[in-house]
Amino acid sequence: MLVHSVFFYFFSIIAIFSSLMVITSRNTINSVFFLILDFISVGCLFIMVGAEFLGMIILIVYVGAVAVLFLFVVMMLNVAEQKQSWFIGRKSTHIPTGLIVSVLIFLELLVVVGGWKYKDDLMSSSTLVISNVSNTHQLGLVMYTDYILYFQIAGIILLLSMIGAILLTFRERSGVKKQSYLKQISRNPSSSIELKEVKFKSGVKIDD
Amino acid sequence: MITYINFLVQEIYKILFLLVPILVSVALIVWLDRRVWGLVQKRKGPNVVGPFGLLQTLADALKYIFKEIIIPASANKSVFILAPIVTMTLALVAWAVIPMSEELVLADINVGILYLFAVSSLGVYGIIMGGWASNSKYPFLGAIRSAAQMVSYEVSIGIIIINVLLCVGSLNLKDIVIAQKDLWYVIPLFPMFVIFFISALAETNRPPFDLPEAEAELVAGYQTEYSGMMYAMFWLGEYANILLMCAMGTILFLGGWLPIVDIYPINMIPAPIWMILKILFLFFLFALIKAIVPRYRYDQLMRLGWKIFLPFSLIYLVITASFLFFLDKLPEGNF
């Protein structure tokens, strides 16, 4: 048990420290790196409580894909050198807005966590009675039987947001030379080489 | 307390027993790579240092150790130093779950294949960090290219893994190998094996997909500013990753440590040797492809990943699932 708690405190201290560093570090790139560290330590905490599937999914989805995109955006926008004047600047308008949002989120969390006790049993999951089943199997048993509708709805929402994002950012630009791979592959000598009779002392026009 | 320390020492001993052979085999594999490359091009390849030139990599490593590490003045120092360390660590950490035989595995975890997938998807960070921290144009372009390439090909690798998992019914690597006792998955899932192999080439930035370090355009990509031991660490990490991809292909499709046919003289060969032989076979293919295939253009690479491999592996996933479902061959799941 001792080793277990040592590891628990190790990962949770790293998680809290890095999440603090995300919002306080001056360099935006460093913030993203601390965010990644935070994701990783939260994933480790998940694995420690026995939810190995969730932990691995956090590593794959958040660290392997989402954070890479974050890093891309931050690097591309070149905001790395921006000095933060959030807490220091006298005319900062961020503080009231930030306070309101964070108080709202905190209250919502309170309501949700406090109301947890009083919720009705919406779903009676009949399949979850076997106790010596691994975490991944349990998820699989429940997700595709009792919660299939919610699973599908989540999938459709994701698909819709993906289509929306593509639609919003898609714009047709004129004057772009596109390469058609079919044309490139299907070229052969007879269609791309032309023999010309060159008259003495008078050249040949090539593009006609 | 004593038991804990005892336990710790035992684990460290086991980890060393895993890491040292991997580092040695990475050195040998570099030699094999260059040798095959040379022989295909009718050269001799490295053949001077030691017997058959086997010690060439060791000599190279010594050279790198004694070279000066140069850090560019405008680089972000901490990230610059961290990048090769991250690459190398991630490449080695993944080996913890690879089973060499039924008993010979360091960490036999339930979600082994997910762990492998997660660690290989983290491999992008070493490259992005190296490219960005160098604060120079070529490394940055190389890093961006490489990250986009790795993220795209990971998607199809993930779907290929799901294909295999559907047939096995478990995420444990040992179970995956044992499920292939009668039939290696390379036979029913042959198209997936081909796509996995090509995606593995792209994932490890091997030719013909070595665009991040395309010499003609980007000098050496994200490694341009690195020198000495830090360059060597990138390089070791890269080869350890290649070896890891070969091991992954072996476990998913070529039946891991299982012998080719289970009859008397052949099944006397110990399991780890079979595993090593299969990994070497896949690596030999990697090395051959490096020598004989020209480099892809970047838009072709992206098109191949997103427009061909992804839809094809998705369709194959549906086919596999319906085949298993309608012929009533879905795995029971061992729980």
Can you walk me through this structure?
The complex is a heterodimer of chains A (208) and B (335). Among the domains of chain A are: 1-82, NADH-ubiquinone/plastoquinone oxidoreductase chain 6, subunit NuoJ (Four Helix Bundle (Hemerythrin (Met), subunit A), Up-down Bundle); 132-168. Chain A has 208 residues and is mainly alpha-helical. Chain A is built from 8 helices and no strands. The relative contact order of chain A is 0.05. Chain A has helices spanning 2-24, 28-48, 52-77, 94-115, 135-143, 148-169, 181-185, 189-192. In chain A, helix 1 (2-24) packs antiparallel against helix 2 and helix 2 (28-48) packs antiparallel against helix 3. By secondary structure, chain B is mostly helical. Chain B has one domain. Chain B is built from 12 helices and no strands. Chain B has helices at 2-40, 56-66, 77-93, 112-122, 124-133, 137-168, 173-178, 190-203, 215-218, 228-253, 271-292, 298-326. In chain B, helix 1 (2-40) crosses helix 10 and helix 6 (137-168) runs parallel beside helix 12. Classes of the chains: A mainly alpha (208), B mainly alpha (335). The interface between A and B is medium-sized, with 27 and 29 residues.
